[in-house]
Amino acid sequence: MHIAEGFLPAPHAVGWTVAAAPFVVHGARAVVREVREHPESTLLLGAAGAFTFVLSAIKLPSVTGSSSHPTGTGAGAVLFRPPVMALLGTVVLLFQALLLAHGGLTTLGANAFAFAVVGPWAGYGAYRLTRALGAGLLPGVFVALALADLATYVTTSLQLALAFPDAASGVLGAAGKFLGVFALTQVPLAVGEGLLGVLLFRVLTVNARPELERLGVLRPAAAAEPAEEAR
Amino acid sequence: MSRGRLVTALLVLAVVALFALPLALDGGASEYAGTDSAATAAIEESGYTPWFESVFSPSSAEVESGLFALQAALGGGVLGYVLGRLRGRRAAREQAAPPDAP
C-alpha cells in the first residue's frame, strides 16, 4: 500500500497531506491524553504500536502470485479507538520512508490517510457493528483486523486511480486496474491478519483483563469463567 | 486449558498454512513480486516519471532486507516484552492471592 516516493503528482501529494494532517495531530493529542490520564495504558499502547510495526515489515506471499504486507492497525483501533492509530501508523510510515526507501515523504500524507486513518476507522466501524450484532470479542477482532487491512489497500488503489486515470476508461477503469493489483492479493493476507489478531487478543483477555475492562473492550465480569472469556 | 491450547495451536497452524500453501502449490511458477512495485511499474508504463527521490535508499537488497528485519525485530521485541510483563504480572497476582479472590 506504500505509494513510492515522488509517485503522486504534486497537487495530489499536497492534497492528501492536508487531508491526513488533522487526523494525525488529533491522534497525537489522543495518545498524550491517554498516557497522561492512564499511565497504566502505556504498556498496551506499546503493544498496539509494536503489532503494526512487525506486521507492516513482513511481506507475505498470496495466492495471486504476488506478495504484500499486512497492516496491523486494527488491533490498536479496537483497544484505543482509531485516533491513536493515526499517530502510531504515521510513525511506522515515517520510519519506512526515511530508512527503507519504502513509501516516501511526498506520499506520506496519502499513505498515512490509507494506512493510519481509513484502515483503523474501517476496522473500528466493523468491530462496533459486529459487537452490536451480538458477536463476541474475538469475532469482532477478526473482522476489525481483516477489514482495516483490506480497506487500506482499497484506499491506496483509489488514490492511485484518482492520480492516474486510464486514458480510455478514466478513473473507474484505473480503479479496477489498481484494485486488481492490490485488493485481490490482500484478501488472504487480511484473513491471516484477522487470525493473528485473534491470537493476540486471546493472550490479552487472559493477561490484561483489567486494562481491557477499563477500555470497555471486555465487560467487567464478577466471576471470570472460561466460557465468558471470549465475550 | 487444554482446549484453549488446542485452539491456539490450530490458529497458528491456519496462519502458517495460509501463507505456505501458495508457495507450495504453484511449484515456483510465480515470482511473488511486491504489489507496491507492480503498481509503480504500471504507473511508469503510462509515461509518468517520479519527481522526487527518496532521501535515503538502502544501497543493496541485502541492506534493505536487513533494515526490514530490524523493523520486525523492534516490533516483535517490544510486543514480546509487553506480553511477557503482562503475563508475569498476572502470575504474581495469582501467587499473592488465591485465583478466585476478587
Strand content of chain B: under 5%
Q: What distance lies between the first and last C-alpha atoms of chain B, to the nearest angstrom?
A: 21 Å
Strand content of chain A: under 5%
- Biggest beta-sheet profile of chain A: 2 strands, antiparallel
Low-confidence stretches of chain A: 227-231
Count of DSSP strands of chain A:
2
The tally of structural domains of chain A comes to 1
Count of DSSP H/I helices of chain B:
3
Quaternary structure type: heterodimer
Point out poorly predicted stretches of chain B: none
The percent range for helix content of chain B is 55-70%
Strand order of the largest sheet of chain A: 1-2
Q: How is the main sheet of chain B built?
A: none
Structural class by SSE content of chain B: mainly alpha
Radius of gyration of chain A: 18 Å
**What is the percent of helical residues of chain A?**
over 70%
The CATH topology name of chain A reads Arp2/3 complex 21 kDa subunit ARPC3
Model description:
The complex is a heterodimer of chains A (231) and B (102). With 231 residues, chain A is mainly α. Chain A has helices spanning 10-37, 42-55, 73-80, 82-99, 108-132, 137-163, 170-207, 209-214; strands spanning 60-61, 66-68. Chain A has one domain (10-220): Orthogonal Bundle (Arp2/3 complex 21 kDa subunit ARPC3). Chain A contains eight helices and two strands, in the order H-H-E-E-H-H-H-H-H-H. In chain A, strands 1-2 form a two-stranded antiparallel sheet. The radius of gyration of chain A is 18 Å and the shape is globular. Residues 227-231 of chain A have low confidence and may be disordered. Chain B is mainly α and 102 residues long. Chain B has a domain at 64-102. Helices cover 70% and strands 2% of the residues of chain B. The mean pLDDT of chain B is 88. At the A-B interface, helix 2, strand 1, strand 2, helix 4 and helix 6 of A face helix 1, strand 1, helix 2 and helix 3 of B.
